[in-house]
Amino acid sequence: MAPPLSRSDMDTAIAKYGPILQLHPDEQYVNCSIEWMLSHSTLIDTKDKTKNIVHPREDQLPQGPKQGTRYYLQVEDLAKPGNFSTAKAYVNAFWRWGLDYTDLQFWFFSGYNGHGTARFSSLVEDKVEHQADIDLAPLGEHWADWEYAAIRIDNTSKEMMGIMLSEHGNNIFFDKTAVAKQFKLVNGSHPVVYSSLNGHANFPGLGPNFSEHHQVLGKPAGLNFNLVNSTADGGLQLDCSTRYQVIAADWLKGTPDAYDIPAWVGYPYRWGPEGTAIHMKVKTLSDFIKAALGPKEFFEILVLDDPITLLAAELMHVLVKSDINGAAAPATQAPWTGHYS
């Protein structure tokens, strides 16, 4: 078994393979640094409000083990748009004994995750009659957003073996063949990773990148739903080969090659508030769908009413995750420790 990557190996791999994060030109919630986010936050101690800290430094954040929901961050509204001039990729280098590769996980942070957009299609006899994209605000919104793209490096050859992308909780792996076919490579080795509009899920290319497909009925009438994850060229770009910070490489601890680990990595609580909630009735979502589709025939109005209500009820469970609380700390998320399935 080949030894894990050295610090020099990792720096070389990042310089050679660091991805280019491509934002949508209409993105309202761009990336920012942790330091910038904290400068617009208040650390809340629910057990002792006298210990709240306005604009905490990272070394003032509580460390693990986590005590329920004792602490959280209350964020100022002006932090929602982010601040791209401060943005960087935060690299968690993952390797454990027995693996012949190292995953360089480039984590991207945004102060806010925007609303979802859905494409609804009305069906008559299983054929599309009307179609429309609907702004689902506030569904899908939450404070703070962590997404990542991982470059898998062979420990022996030091070459890229593939790419892992986060897509709304899913982790999609692309081997070398898929990378060559599906990714744009800048200067032959830097993959372009497309960040979806508002939601920041990562994709290998341009397009609507549909997800969360649902269909209710079809004959005599029915309804199709897809979540739209729009990606496009022309927006801001983050070159992760130059704008990055390695924040974890556990096997190097205690060695001369060890990286300085920022204190915020050990913060186990939400990057955002606790106890927030989205309130939307099924009828409200049903009315959105009906207005967007605008069926003109009485027959369609009659037969689509029940499918729309059924689908709206189903989607409330998909899109309303009970709150718009902040995202979980990255070190508490499964991919951080190599659990991608």
Automatic annotation (TrEMBL):
It comes from the Eukaryota. PANTHER family: GNK2-HOMOLOGOUS DOMAIN-CONTAINING PROTEIN, VACUOLAR PROTEIN SORTING-ASSOCIATED PROTEIN 62. This is Uncharacterized protein.
